[in-house]
Design a protein that fits this description.
Elements: H1 14-24, H2 31-52, E1 61-65, E2 71-73, H3 74-88, E3 93-98, E4 105-106, E5 112-123, E6 134-142, E7 163-169, E8 173-178, E9 184-189, E10 194-199, E11 210-212, H4 223-233, E12 243-244, H5 250-260, E13 263-266, E14 277-278, H6 279-292, E15 296-298, E16 315-316, E17 318-321, H7 323-339
Parallel strand pairs: 3-5, 11-12, 11-13
Antiparallel strand pairs: 1-2, 3-4, 5-6, 6-7, 7-8, 8-9, 9-10, 13-17, 14-16, 15-17
Helix pairs in contact: 1-2, 2-3, 4-7
């Protein structure tokens, strides 16, 4: 008989992973470990709520509009409260920036720590009612000033990120996390209630075969974007054209790009000259993950992680993915800049 058992007896859970990473950092206080574990608890709770939403009558609109003009869904509101409450009760945060709140949230004095967290509690929520994949995105920074906490503490470029990640609520619940030493993926085991390591040190392909963007805005595209897409659809070297895939849920589209390679685009256009995605809690965390996996993330003019934020809900263009694909797009941009 085989001595292999159906159960793993030395599992690397996400909690264990976070603790082990923390122990390796000289002078670590355990505060980041507390923070990440609280974030994971919120993600587990959101995952449970997403699965039960239909039965609990949580689909539909909450009757309010968030600060960026999107109609808030009931699950949006619930997810936002879950993340805020869990992060503040970790005693490790001082400033929280959420897509759902107009102003930064300052943690009460008695619960304050040294970290700033920017998050989108439920990204892709327009897809909730049709059961498409949705997700949670977050980025963690260390407070750099000695002043009283304020929204200015969040005005740090993405290069300062201490840890970032996203949760994808799809056919399973997955967390992709980076603390600046590569990207690791964890899957939620519902029986254990724990995230288990399923892929270590994920690397994106140098070149993919998929492009992802909303072509419904084609009439507003810049000439560089139009030319790049033409090259993908009708390759001049006689190779096979790229496939088009677009869910409209950023976490789902970026995760597919990470796993299969290719390019994800939400560039500036005539309708949204500054882009549409938000820098602090959408673009920066995803750019950090993609760069840690060996990819490129750009606004078209500079690396996303180099952009200095000026407001908490600032929008920027975003193009990210496999290095060769993104570089080909940047070549198109530079060509059109020279000709103009």
């Amino acid at each position: 008989m085989s001595d292999r058992t159906p159960f793993e007896t030395d599992m690397l859970t996400l909690n264990r992973y976070v603790m082990e990473k923390g122990r390796r950092v000289k002078g670590a206080t355990g505060e980041l470990t507390q923070l990440l574990n609280s974030m994971l608890t919120a993600i587990k709770a959101i995952s449970s709520a997403v699965r039960k939403a239909g039965l609990a009558h949580m689909y539909g609109i909450a009757g309010t509009v968030n600060v960026t003009g999107d109609e808030q869904k009931k699950l949006d509101v619930l997810s936002n409260f879950l993340v805020i409450n869990m992060l503040q009760s970790s005693y490790s945060t001082c400033v929280l920036v959420s897509e759902e709140n107009k102003e930064a949230i300052i943690t009460p004095k008695e619960k304050r720590g040294k970290y700033v967290v920017c998050f989108d509690p439920l990204d892709g929520s327009s897809n909730i009612d049709c059961l498409a994949s949705i997700g949670t995105i977050f980025a963690i920074y260390k407070k750099t000033s000695e002043d009283e906490p304020s929204e200015k503490d969040a005005f740090q470029p993405g290069r300062n990120i201490v840890a970032a990640g996203y949760a994808l609520y799809g056919s399973a619940t997955l967390v992709a996390l980076s603390t600046g030493q590569g990207v690791d993926c964890f899957m939620l085991d519902p029986a254990l209630g724990e995230f288990i390591l399923v892929e270590k040190d994920v690397k994106i392909k140098k070149k993919g075969k998929i492009y992802s963007l909303n072509e419904g805005y084609a009439k507003y595209f810049d000439p560089a974007v139009t030319e790049y897409l033409q090259k993908k659809k009708f390759p001049e070297d006689g190779s096979s054209p790229y496939a088009s895939r677009y869910v409209g849920s950023m976490v789902a589209d970026v995760h597919r790009t990470l796993v299969y390679g290719g390019i994800f685009m939400y560039p500036a256009n005539q309708k949204s000259p500054k882009g549409k995605l938000r820098l602090l809690y959408e673009c920066n965390p995803m750019a950090f993950i993609i760069e840690q996996a060996g990819g490129i993330a750009t606004t078209g003019t500079e690396a996303v992680l180099d952009v200095k934020p000026e407001s908490i809900h600032q929008r920027v263009p975003l193009v990210l993915g496999s290095p060769e694909d993104v570089q080909e797009y940047l070549d198109c941009v530079q060509k059109h800049q020279k000709s103009s």
